[in-house]
Design goal:
This protein is mainly beta. 10% of the residues lie in helices and 45% in strands. The termini are far apart.
Length: 182
């Protein structure tokens, strides 16, 4: 019995030994760069087939953000919009700074959706330093394969003593998205 328990413990230890340091969707290779574009399969896409933005937004998207006034890329994200009015995002920012966010969305009219998107902010060591709230209105293409939008992000950084008030910063920008085909 003891040999069996020991064997199970050894197998479990070997199976999970690298998990904490290497948790990822793919083989982790940190190059220190976070500005490499995502390369998706190209080619013609079939129309999504929805009749309005609320139907066409549902799915997985590759989104490139820019920040005004520079209009230079501020990040690239994978976003999933769900039929229950929720959405989830994984952006190409350092994990320790916070790169997972979620939110809610609703249809505005036949071609637009609006979302409220929130996330925690951390410093490079993983210490919580605040949160952000992004509002965005997007126009979904009639074929459901792309969308563009404008956003406003409010960053709230917790006060560092002796300060007692949070630091609040507001930025505006754009989003340009391409559907990732199933």
């Amino acid at each position: 019995m003891n040999k069996r328990i020991t064997a199970i413990m050894v197998i479990t230890t070997l199976a999970f030994s690298g998990l904490a340091a290497h948790a990822s969707c793919v083989v982790p290779r940190s190059t220190g760069r976070h500005d490499m574009p995502l390369i998706l399969k190209s080619g013609p896409r079939a129309p999504f087939g929805g009749h309005n933005a609320a139907e066409n937004i549902i799915g997985t998207w590759d989104v490139v953000y820019t920040t005004d006034p520079s209009s230079s890329p501020a990040g690239e994200a994978l976003i999933q919009w769900h039929s229950d009015g929720t959405e989830w995002e994984n952006i190409n920012l350092p994990v320790l700074d916070g790169n997972i966010c979620l939110g809610s969305w609703k249809a505005v009219d036949r071609s637009h959706v609006s979302r409220n998107h929130v996330g925690w902010l951390y410093d490079g060591t993983g210490t919580l330093i605040g949160y952000f709230d992004e509002t965005e209105t997007d126009e979904v293409a009639p074929d459901g394969n792309s969308y563009t939008g404008v956003n406003t992000t409010t960053v709230n950084l917790y006060p560092i003593p002796p300060a007692t008030a949070p630091t609040v910063m507001v930025t505006t920008g754009t989003a340009t998205a391409t559907r990732i085909s199933p």
